Each structure stands twice: as C-alpha cells, then as structure tokens.
Queue: 2 jobs
Job 1
Amino acid sequence: QVQLVESGGGEVQPGGSLRLSCAASGFRFSNYGFHWVRQAPGKGLEWVALIWSDGTRENYADSVKGRFTISRDNSENTLYLQMNNLRVEDTAVYYCARDLSVAAGDYRGQGTLVTVSS
Amino acid sequence: QSALTQPASVSGSPGQSITISCIGTSSDLGGYNYVSWYQHHPGKAPKLMIYDVTNRPSGISNRFSGSKSGNTASLTISGLQAEDEADYYCSSYSSSNTVLFGGGTKMTVL
C-alpha cells in the first residue's frame, strides 16, 4: 500500500539547518509531484513547497523562499526538504504528500516535528 | 500569498447536513478548478476528501461533496456522523504557482 514516512525533524537553534526526508513506497515515485506542508502549534496547515515529478520545477511559499530547498531522488524513492537559516516561526510538524492532481495532496505519514528554539 | 477564508467553526447534529465555505479570489480559487478539501484529526495525517472541486478519492464516502461558484467553494457533509468531527481545510492552486490553504474550520457534531 501507499506509504510516506517523514523523518529528520528535531530541535535546532535559530539560524541552524535541518534536512527532512520522506521515504515513499507502494507506488511509482517518479510519476508524481510532491509537496511539503507544515502545521505550527495551534495553527492551521501551511503549504511550503512543491516539486514536479521530473524534478525540473520547484515552487515555494514566500515565507521559506531562499531558505528552503525541495529536492527528490527518484532512484531512492525519497523526497527531501533542506531547511537553512531556520527561524523560530518555522517550528511545526512537517508533512509530505504526493500530488494526485494539481495541488491535491495525498498525505499518509504522521509528520516530523521541527522545533527551532534558543 | 493570502490564505483562503473559512469560517472558524460550524456544527450540526447527527444525521443533518452542514456546509463549509471557502472564499478566495479570481487569482486562485476562482480562476482554477483545483480546489481540494482535507479532513484533519490532530496528530494524524490530513486526509484528502475532495479534489478538483468535486472529485472524491477512492474510499471517500459519498456523504462528502464539493462545489464552486465564482470565488467561493463549498464542502457539504450530509448525514453527519460522530466520526466526521474534525478540522477541515480547503486549498487551491494559485496564479503564482503556489498553493493556498484556508485557515481551517472546526466541525463539531453536537
């Protein structure tokens, strides 16, 4: 069955970096675009980034543009989110999702918690 | 990148129907038929309930339906059940090649 397992979260100081991973299985990874979405404590869902199925295009929310990079390794069936220059407001649970249509995310994992704190 | 507008809360009794609205602009929700709705229970993965305005993924009950008129999309849940109680989010593709979410609606079954 379709599985997406996020990992790589943790606690980091402001200005630090983390790389999140999303391991996929149960479907042809290379056929899908993927999203990262986050939920800060007590807040709603916020879209973060999108990468197309062939990896040729990426799009980012203004709040992370220039600091975060989404990438994928189709040979390893894994999606990544490199997060640099982290801010306190980046604290959230981060979810990955495959794109079933346009901006229609199929979420399967429990997410990974990123805490940015001094 | 302004968020889509949803009511903070809605409620209904078992068996009733409720509708959650989602208001955008002509640059996002009104300009594309790429509106999705998600059900989210705290601590769990968001669940896609509706995509492309009206389509239900496999396995989603036909008690859930979506529609759109102009810059407003709606999610209707009919025959309310206790397990429908959750947070619901709308989302839409936008002209800036990004995705917008609504602020979320807490749906309570009375």
Job 2
Amino acid sequence: KNEVEQSPQNLTAQEGEFITINCSYSVGISALHWLQQHPGGGIVSLFMLSSGKKKHGRLIATINIQEKHSSLHITASHPRDSAVYICAGKEPDKLIFGTGTRLQVFP
Amino acid sequence: DSGVTQTPKHLITATGQRVTLRCSPRSGDLSVYWYQQSLDQGLQFLIQYYNGEERAKGNILERFSAQQFPDLHSELNLSSLELGDSALYFCASSSGVLQEQFFGPGTRLTVL
C-alpha cells in the first residue's frame, strides 16, 4: 500500500523565520504535489515535482528520489503563510495525501 | 483562481436525501477527480474521469456515483445521505493523467 507521511503535524513560527516541512513517501509514487489549504477550506496547488527543485517566490520545494523524501521550505515567513500544507503522492490515477502540517506564523 | 468551478458552495440537507454536486474543469483539461475531506479522515480520493470515461475508483461508497459529460463537466451524486457524509467535496482537474491537478473551491455538504 502506498503511503505518504508528513512532519511535523503542527508548526509555529515567528514572522521572518525559515520553515521546513518534510514528506516521505513509499515506492510506486511517481511525483509529489505540495498543496496549501487556507482556513476557509480552499486548496491551492503549490508545486508538483518528480525530481530536483522548484522555486516560486518565497517557496522552495525539493525532492530526493533515492531517499523518497521531499521538503517544502518557506523563506522569510509571514502571517499570511498560515495555512495547512499537504503533500500528496501521485500514483497514476490518483493522489495519496499526507495528514497535513498546520503552520501558524505570528507577527 | 484555479479555473475549476464547483457548485453549489454550500449545501444543507437531511438524512436520506439525494444531492448532486457539479464541477467544471479548467478549459482544456480532460481529467476530473473527486475528493472528500471530512474532519476525521482527511482528504480521500473518490473517483477519476478522463474524457468521459471512468478511469479510477478510490474509497467511493456504493451510494455515491459520478459521471463526466461530453462538455467535460462532471457531477457527483450522493444518495441516501447519512450524517457521516457531511464533508467538503473537492473536484480537481488536470490536462492529462500525469499532470498537476488544480482544485476547485469545494462544496461544503452538511447532512442534518
């Protein structure tokens, strides 16, 4: 059974701090989605990556295929980054979701 | 705005009833996925359609069914509703099976 494990479950930070969220996945998953879910419930796709590194603004996602591990980094965190971050492993026909990391950034 | 639309935004109904949730994918996307997010279970994959054909099934109950129409919009039908069906239902679309998925705003279903 393919699995996706995420850590930490909860994370608090002061504005400006560098944040890392980790995701490990099992064999059979070909790519990783990073998603952001705001308190209102909407889900935004941040990245999908199957190798290397992607950057968008203050967000950076990396993936290590050999170690089956991905990280999401947020540089210079801001209170508006407060959300639940979810990694999802991509099987051919569906996503398998991690349990999410609840991030709170305080001013 | 992801380009994926879902209606209605909120739905309140009673046990035993039947509801239909609608999803319009991004322009040009052929794949539609349905997901359920309940408080105690997190996000769960329900079903996927590709260009009108069912492609994959996940944890979808027999009381639930879906279809994708020739114009590529999709509907998720939930029948004989139970209290436990209360959840957020998301659809997502992608241009192909291996492509990034983009999520709609969700439909919040409350069963009383």
